[in-house]
């Protein structure tokens, strides 16, 4: 059902051709990168947190990790991940297929700066056997992002010298 919601959404915005369905699972950053043939960093991983009693999603590069201090500075609360068995209920997608499209009403999606260094980004598509290929501008547009934030660490600058952070 989650994949169908994502597929219908992309059909409605004229971008259904951005979705690729695979025969194998891409349920982790590493699995998805291997399937697609890209660097793990180019996989946009979606992490779900509770902030002020509401679920939010932070989408970040596959090589990035949430920095507690930066998260707290941004949201004024320590990061608390949504438990695995609650993600689908609160976000609208099961772990392995979580993406920033066709999420439950009231879920704010934030995009981390770690993604901006890539010309192409890959996300899940509501299931662990489908991905979506997007530019950063398309990701911002189609995710209806609530904002671009800087809450991650551990990612590296790209070959064009754009800002990055090593851990």
Characterization of the model:
By secondary structure, the protein is an alpha/beta fold. It has helices spanning 2-12, 29-36, 68-75, 87-91, 136-143; strands at residues 19-21, 44-51, 54-61, 65-66, 108-112, 121-124, 130-134, 147-149, 152-153. It has five helices and nine strands; from the N terminus they run αβαβββααβββαββ. A hairpin with a 2-residue loop joins β2 (44-51) and β3. Mean pLDDT is 92; it is low at 159-167.
Structure, briefly:
The protein has 5 helices and 9 strands; from the N terminus they run αβαβββααβββαββ. With 167 residues, it is of the alpha/beta class.
Order of helices and strands: HEHEEEHHEEEHEE
- Count of discrete alpha- or pi-helical segments spanning 4 or more residues: 5
Strand content: 15-25%
Distance between the termini: 38 Å
Weakly predicted, low-confidence segments: 159-167
């Amino acid at each position: 059902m989650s994949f169908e919601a994502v597929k219908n959404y992309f059909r409605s915005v004229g971008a259904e051709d951005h979705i690729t369905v695979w025969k194998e699972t891409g349920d982790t950053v590493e699995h998805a990168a291997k399937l697609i043939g890209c660097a793990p960093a180019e996989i946009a991983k979606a992490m779900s947190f509770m902030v002020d009693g509401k679920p939010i999603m932070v989408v970040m590069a596959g090589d990035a990790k949430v920095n507690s201090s930066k998260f707290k500075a941004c949201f004024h609360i320590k990061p608390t991940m949504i438990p695995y068995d609650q993600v689908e209920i609160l976000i609208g997608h099961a772990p392995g297929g979580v993406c920033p499209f066709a999420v439950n009403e009231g879920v704010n999606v934030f995009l981390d700066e770690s993604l901006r260094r890539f010309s192409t980004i890959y996300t899940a598509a509501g299931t662990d056997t489908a991905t979506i290929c997007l530019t950063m501008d398309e990701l911002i547009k189609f995710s209806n992002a609530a904002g671009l934030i800087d809450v991650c660490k551990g990612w590296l600058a790209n070959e064009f010298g754009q800002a990055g952070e090593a851990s």
